[in-house]
Design brief:
The chain is mostly beta strands. The protein is 10% helix and 48% strand.
């Protein structure tokens, strides 16, 4: 069987170029300046409702940085939220001024803590999809990450029911 020149060149080009693709395609992690963004994810949610985004933010640099905003085409607006205890009740509140990530520190965006609120979804968050969200850092600038959409009842590892693997 003879190998023609064109398919051979295509195979060789793929073998050379595939390792050069951005790391994030396989690792599901991103960077913005000195901030390493790990495993962004969300839960399935209906259209016209509200979704949430979760991830870890680790500052590998020597200066503090701050997540100051986020945006997504799939939502009317995206806000940074946290949960605060008011008496015996936990209440969700928007974080004014963003979230600081000190040098060497890691901030976890998890259910019941810091998270992104995707308000006014223009379409459903469907399990198995990846949803682009742009994060804006004071020092590190902007980076678009993809939230891996898990099932509606998904719980990350370390919580009472479930584990996170993607």
């Amino acid at each position: 069987m003879a190998i023609t020149r064109r398919p051979l060149l295509a195979v060789l080009a793929a073998a050379v170029l595939l390792p050069l693709l951005p790391r994030r395609a396989a690792a599901h992690s991103y960077t913005a300046g000195d901030i390493a963004i790990g495993h962004p994810w969300s839960r399935a949610a209906p259209p016209r409702g509200t979704g949430a985004g979760f991830m870890t933010l680790k500052n590998t640099g020597s200066a503090p940085d701050r997540l100051v905003a986020a945006r997504a085409a799939i939502a009317r607006t995206v806000e940074i939220h946290t949960h605060l205890r008011e008496g015996d009740v936990m209440r969700m509140r928007q974080v004014e001024g963003g979230v600081e990530i000190a040098p060497g520190a890691e901030v976890a965006f998890t259910p019941g803590s810091f998270h992104l609120m995707l308000i006014g979804l223009t379409e459903a968050l469907v399990q198995g999809q990846r949803v682009p969200v742009t994060l804006v850092f004071a020092r590190g600038g902007e980076v678009t990450v993809e939230l891996a959409v898990e099932s509606a009842g998904y719980r990350p590892s370390g919580s009472p029911a479930g584990g996170h693997n993607h």
